[in-house]
Amino acid sequence: MRLSDIIATEQLEERPRTGVARLEARAVPRAVPQPGASLRDALHPRCEEALLRCSAQSAGISIFDNDDLDELTWAATAGVLGPFEGRRFPRSNSPCGLCFSYRKTQLLLQPHRYFAWMAQTGVPINEALVVPLIGQFGAFYGTIWVMSHDNLEIHFTLDDADILADLSRGLASTIRLNDQGRAAGGSSFRPV
Predict the structure, then answer these.
(1) Could you tell me which of 147, 144, 149, 94 has the C-alpha nearest to residue 122?
(2) What is the torsion angle, in degrees rounded to the nearest 10, for the CA atoms of residue 57, residue 113, residue 86 and residue 99?
(3) What distances in angstroms separate CA 9 from CA 77, 109, 154, one per listed residue?
(4) In whole angstroms, what is the distance from residue 158 CA to residue 181 CA?
């Protein structure tokens, strides 16, 4: 299996747009994190929104960990992969790492065939759409993503990529502010 066998980003251009996603975006109120909220509590509503708006089966936000810059953490997850929240994995061997390398949205088909750690979850992934979280001056904080599993009718489109890009706005700032607030100690997250 080669990496090129699972990268299907060019298919996004071929899939028809519906335009529905943009109209729905205006109707969904965005949760605002409360002062003192944990990073997970600040990020989780965006995962839930991504799950709903992209008709996905899983959604999550992966961020770089200060303790090991070659690792990412699923800081918030929703849906089928919700039980794996908090899991750490290698950036260099992940869909999020590909997004980091290319610095743009990536569509992957059955990434569990290539990434052994994903196969070990026991959850097959039909499609994964991964969008970068980029902050000030191009700092890369992590990714926001959606996945489909057993529903083979779910095919992500550019509308879904637009939704995730919209949801990503402000997330880098949320992560950066969390990092500054935790500077006194404990695990924190930072951009690369």
Answers:
(1) 149
(2) -90
(3) 23, 9, 15
(4) 35
CATH class, 3-14+38-181 region = alpha beta
SS3 174: helix
pLDDT digits (tens, 9 = 90+) for 124-147: 999 999 999 888 778 788 899 999
Distance, in Å, from the CA atom of 40 to the CA atom of 101, rounded to the nearest integer, reads 25
Length reported for the chain: 192
The predicted model scores a pTM of 0.84
Q: What is the pLDDT of residues 2-46, one digit of tens each?
A: 999 999 999 999 998 876 654 454 444 444 445 566 778 888 999
66 CB-side CA count, 13 A: 13
Domain boundaries, given as residue ranges, for the chain? 3-14+38-181
